[in-house]
Amino acid sequence: MPTTTLAGTRLRQRRLTMGLRQADLATRAGISASYLNLIEHNRRRIGPDVLSRLAAALGLPEAALSEGADNGLMDDLRAAAAVTGEAQAELDRIEDFAGRFPGWAGLLADLHRRTSRLARAVEALNDRMSHDPHLQASLHEMLSAASAVRSTAEILAETEDIPPEWRERFHRNLHQDSERMAVGAEALVAYLDNSGQAQETGIAAPQEELEAWLGARGWHLAEVEAGDAAALDPEIAALASGAARVLAHAWVARAVLDAKALPLEPLQAARVAARDDPATLAAQFGTDLLTVFRRIAMLPAAPEGLVICDGSGTLLFRKPVAGFALPRFGAACPLWPLFTALSRPMVPVSALVETAGAGSLRFAVRAFCQPRYPGGFGGPELREAAMLILPAGTVSTQDAVLLGSTCRVCPRTGCPARREPSIVAEAAG
Which of 20, 293, 294, 338 has the fewest Cβ atoms within 10 Å of its own Cβ atom? Predict the structure, then answer.
């Protein structure tokens, strides 16, 4: 099968890098210099036989000249074209564009990736500003201290005949409120800076501390695999808050049970035969689906994201995946398959989803809800649901479920599940 015209540009770049003349390369490959000139200027496609001879003449593998190296660039350019409004890109000529102007094509793809990252950052910051209870409490403290300083200063500035003892009291209050405001500002800056290391005097949420700790370890606990979970105790003891330490110990304890249910090496081998089907793995190892979900997401260098919620829909755990924004404090998008599974216990849910916004991407999602009865048969039913998230690329003929992160920052109009107006839509209007 002939390769695309992109190979011509790569061929020319390789030849120039190696300092070869066009005529010399043509002679080595057994073709005419004029034919090679047409190939290098993307006016002829390269057949497999000619490609093989050219690669051999350059001392390169055929893959170095084939189109596979540019699949990522093509996907990025198509994704950039998909977010345009009135201007329509010529998708049928995208390959020729990348071949003739590789520098511009790379620049456009890079700008699209940067725009997508900025959009996701705005979503995360808005979510934090709108719903983070710790941030709201800190801002309230700052505003209260500022109001107290202003009131005291006005009294001192506008009242001339204040008795000395009262003036001294006002000065003392002014000093105390100023110190209070300074401490609050330092804590607020430390929190917004979000270096990932909570401080005892800071306001980081315990759940964030746990996720930051796991994220710093690559979301994998090698000590648990080695049967030495106690080796994690010093790291857990170094977490800032007592609540985070409790959550970390609980997570490690559950990871130990998960590792016993699905040992690392047998699981890795079984995943290939089962084609990563969670239900097949659960049946093979005699365990439940939520255990399989957690285990898959926490394997070494696992690309899958993981979200866990309880029966109220509150997100209890978030392992992010690039391009799929996870709200930190506000309610998540009700169209997530996670909540579909939550309403249908013990029924597997599988879907292809597409995120909202300029950097829209597609993800293959699997979700499952499992009830439990800690109080016995007559006790309350507690539900826990989990959702595995895996990038599915930007090009697919399958219809996707359109969803967002949370209503407040979702730009998608006409959504039947919208709870509140979007600030993104308001800004665009």
Answer: 20
CATH fold, domain 6-110, is 434 Repressor (Amino-terminal Domain) (1.10.260)
Q: Please state, in angstroms and as integers, the Cα–Cα distance from residue 166 to each residue in 162, 175, 176, following that order.
A: 6, 14, 15
Q: Which tokens in the block code for residue 74?
A: 């093509």
Instruction: Give the predicted TM-score (pTM) of the model.
Output: 0.59
- Dist CA 173 CA 428 (whole Å): 46
Which residue do the tokens 């992160």 mark?
405
Contacts of 428 (CB under 8 A, 6+ apart): 411
Tell me the C-alpha distance between 253 and 41, whole Å.
Answer: 61
Phi, psi of 180 (to 5 degrees): -60, -40
What's the gap between Cα 27 and its chain centre?
50
For 376, left (φ over 0), alpha (ψ -120 to 50), or beta?
left
DSSP 354-388: EE-STT--EEEEEEEEEEE-TT-TTS--EEEEEEE
Query: What tens digit of pLDDT does each residue of 19-51 get?
Result: 788 888 888 888 888 888 888 877 777 778 888
Domain ranges of the chain: 6-110, 133-193
